[in-house]
Write a structure and sequence with these properties.
Blueprint (H helix, E strand, L loop, with lengths): L1 E5 L3 E2 L7 E5 L2 E5 L12 E4 L3 E5 L1 E3 L20 H12 L4 H18 L1 E8 L9 H12 L2 E8 L18 H15 L8 E7 L7 H14 L2 E6 L3 H11 L3 H7 L7 E5 L5 H10 L2 E4 L1 H6 L7 H7 L3 E3 L12 H16 L6 H15 L16 E5 L11 H7 L7 E4 L2 E5 L2 E2 L4 H12 L4
Parallel strand pairs: 1-5, 2-6, 7-8, 8-9, 9-10, 10-11, 11-12, 12-13, 13-14
Antiparallel strand pairs: 1-3, 3-4, 6-15, 15-16, 16-17, 17-18
Helix pairs in contact: 2-3, 2-14, 4-5, 8-10, 11-12
Length: 443
């Protein structure tokens, strides 16, 4: 079926003033001003109320943390004390609570306009060995694209690391499960709905040997590599004390300095570090909301992009962001980067690019992230009907400056997954009640 999304109020694409034509899972035609589609269409969707964006791509999250938002024991703490407080609480995760946390996070993301999500799951208490399988199942039910990052921690407190023994696994168990889930779920074809990444958690929770072996495994399965890096000064101090080198030097030493890698946060990089990362094509996921909540610092987005490093956007965990809304993250990126780099240095265009094309590059994908013929039909459509938009003169800029937070329509692979602001096939009331009931057990 050929579907014409006709005459949008505005669209983030050149030469598509009269909309786009979708056939199957792809965008097959942009319709410029004064023109009609080049071939007959089967159906027309009137987009005259809608601002059309490429589907947003979230490149860093921790879905399980939806169960511990605004937790009273962790509020108002910086990263290391925050983690030490929450690790014992997260050790109580079980398959049922985890499944609800994943479902809620994915629904939140979809409703904000996100069509591809990357989740970094690294907490594996006993009984939750099938966490990756649960995430894949939930993503498939909702019809959202997903890169499931099979995270890992094998350096516990008794070994000089940060996490307690109850949430870490041994190296053999980690590597065996990485092989299993990559073999079962990793799809390298264009238009893939599910991909796997390998993601040792951070320098203070994994060994160098595990990072080396994970890099070798990623080459074998053609998977991406992901980890937290340069998030806080505490991490710098830990690496210097433990490994006698800075985090970026550790990255090079374990064979991660390649275009296969994207990093979360990347705050405490020097100008030379940014140049090095750009030279090697290493991506960085900017997490502005989380960085502000934990007071971790400012990502050097401009220096990284100038050096050639892909820059993406992520909401980060719902216990440090307290939300899973990527469109809100776009606005936060604008505010925080202007505060850090100046009003003229960063525009709404930059922030939307990070949330779409930049994020797609971080995930190694060239089939999503833009409104372009031949790409997957992943689209987020917003209306400007709320009071917050009244008086706004640039429809696309208004989404960022005036604070859009909920999409009216979301399409993934040519299929509507959100209609009239509601996720298709999801009982929001029942989900809220079930998730809230389970979350109460984590107080």
């Amino acid at each position: 079926m050929r579907l014409w999304l006709k005459d949008p109020l505005a669209i983030l694409a050149e030469g598509a003033e009269r909309g786009i034509v979708v056939e199957g899972s792809q965008i097959v035609e942009l319709v410029p001003a004064g023109r009609e589609p080049g071939a007959p269409v089967d159906k027309v969707f009137d987009a005259s109320r809608h601002v059309v964006l490429p589907g947003l791509v979230n490149t860093h999250h921790h879905f399980y943390q939806t169960l511990t938002r605004a937790h009273p024991d962790a509020c108002d703490q910086p990263l290391f004390p925050w983690l030490k407080t929450l690790y014992p609480i997260w050790s109580r995760l079980d398959p049922d609570s985890f499944r609800l946390s994943v479902r809620l996070a994915l629904v939140e993301l979809l409703m904000s306009g996100c069509t591809t999500a990357a989740d970094h799951h690294y907490v594996f208490p006993k009984g939750l060995e099938n966490a990756v399988d649960i995430e894949v199942e939930e993503a498939r039910k909702l019809g959202i694209r997903m890169t499931v990052s099979r995270g890992s921690m094998n350096l516990s407190q008794k070994d000089g690391g940060l996490p307690p023994d109850s949430v870490v696994q041994d190296e053999d168990t980690i590597l065996a499960d990485c092989e299993r889930v990559a073999g079962a779920y990793h799809d390298t074809r264009p238009g893939a709905m599910t991909q796997i990444a390998f993601s040792p958690c951070s320098p203070f929770s994994v060994t160098k040997e595990l990072m080396r072996k994970t890099a070798d495994l990623a080459e074998r399965f053609d998977c991406r590599l992901h980890t937290h890096l340069a998030e806080t000064h505490d991490e710098d101090d830990f690496c210097l004390a433990t490994y006698k080198c800075r985090p970026i030097e550790l990255l090079d030493e374990v064979g991660w300095m390649s275009p296969r890698t994207w990093l979360a946060h990347g705050i405490h990089f020097s100008a030379d570090d940014c140049t090095t990362l750009g030279r090697h094509g290493v991506g960085v996921c900017h997490c502005p909301t989380s960085n502000a909540v934990l007071a971790s610092g400012f990502c050097h987005t401009g220096l990284l992009e100038k050096a050639g490093a892909p820059v993406g956007l992520g909401v980060d965990g719902s216990a440090s962001n307290d939300s899973s809304n990527l469109m809100e993250g776009v606005r936060h990126a604008l505010m925080i980067n202007r505060l850090s780099h100046g009003a003229e240095a960063v525009s709404w265009r930059d922030c939307l690019r990070w949330a779409s094309e930049g994020s797609a590059r971080c995930l190694g994908r060239d089939d999503i992230g833009a409104v372009r013929a031949g790409l997957e039909a992943d689209l987020a459509l917003y209306t400007l009907d709320e009071l917050r938009f009244s008086g706004a003169h640039h429809p696309i800029a208004a989404l960022v400056h005036c604070g859009a937070h909920r999409a009216d329509r979301v399409m993934v692979a040519g299929q509507w997954r959100v209609e009239d602001g509601l996720p298709v096939g999801v009982d929001l009331g029942a989900l809220r009640e079930a998730h809230g009931r389970v979350a109460a057990k984590f107080l």
